Amino acid sequence: MFERYTDRARRVIFFARYEASALASSSIDTEHLLLGLLREGAGIAGGVFKRTKLTYEVVRREIEARGRLQAPTSTSVDMPLSPEAKRVLQHAGEEAERMDASHIDMEHLLLGLLRESECLAADILTSKGLRLEEVREETRLQSPAKEVAPRPREAFPKLADFLRQLEDRRAAYHVSAFHQEAIRVEVALPEEKWVVTFLPDGRVAVEVFSASGAVEDEAALARLLDRLGPPKTG
User: Fold this and answer.
1) pTM of the full predicted structure?
2) Which CATH class, in words, describes the domain spanning 7-142?
3) Which of 97, 166, 181, 191 is the most exposed place for a label (fewest CB within 10 A)?
4) Pairwise CA distance, residues 43 & 182, whole Å
């Protein structure tokens, strides 16, 4: 079942099994997976936790406060995954495929927890300020780039041209710095929010936050400009 998992992702599952036993659970649930992630605390997911000041101790206290503790169960007892935890693992696999990753790692498990929005782990994560779209974008930007030859001089002209076209259409937008010198432009439309990230190596990532949550390349910019209409005159 865990053939595609990295070693540290497998350790997360092992830690989750231990946490489920320590919290007297009859199954491995989403909150135990979250504690396992925090115990391992490495990779992109570890960076997200550090940035948001989310620690194992904080989450453990919150889980304990939400339920009555019983005597710990034996770690020798077979302990299945809960239905919610199984869905989280399925989500993690889908996130890895979505990002064309060869293995499922900790960041994909974190995204899987956030996608299972009704579970306890997701409730804790969102209460601490984590959002699926933002963590997904951060993961994508920190993943190894597939381009062999970077083109650092292409980023600024693309950004400048895109902003000029937005100005021509009198569109409302917001520009902000993002991870590792990337520039992010947010454009709001009815029922959609477009986030266009111009990366230092010349790549452009376009994400549409709608029901589909699709991630596209810079070819999607023409569709956004069409949505905004022709340039305004006068």
Assistant:
1) 0.62
2) mainly alpha
3) 191
4) 20
- What angle is formed at CA 133 by the lines to CA 132 and CA 137, rounded to 5 degrees? 115
Over the stretch 82-115, which tens digit does the pLDDT of each residue have? 999 999 999 999 999 988 888 999 999 999 999 9
Q: Which residues on neighbouring strands pair with residue 207, listed in sequence order?
A: 195, 215
Please list the alpha-helical segments (H only) found in the chain.
7-22, 30-40, 43-51, 56-66, 83-98, 106-115, 120-127, 132-142, 155-168, 221-228
Q: What pLDDT digit, counting tens, does each position of 128-183 carry?
A: 899 999 999 999 888 875 544 444 456 678 888 888 888 888 888 888 876 656 78
- Backbone dihedral angles phi then psi of residue 175, each to the nearest 5 degrees: -110, 135
Question: Which amino acid is it at 134?
Answer: E
Helix crossing, 56-66 with 30-40: angle to 10°?
160
Local structure of 221: helix, strand or coil: helix
Residue listed under structure tokens 């549409």 = 208
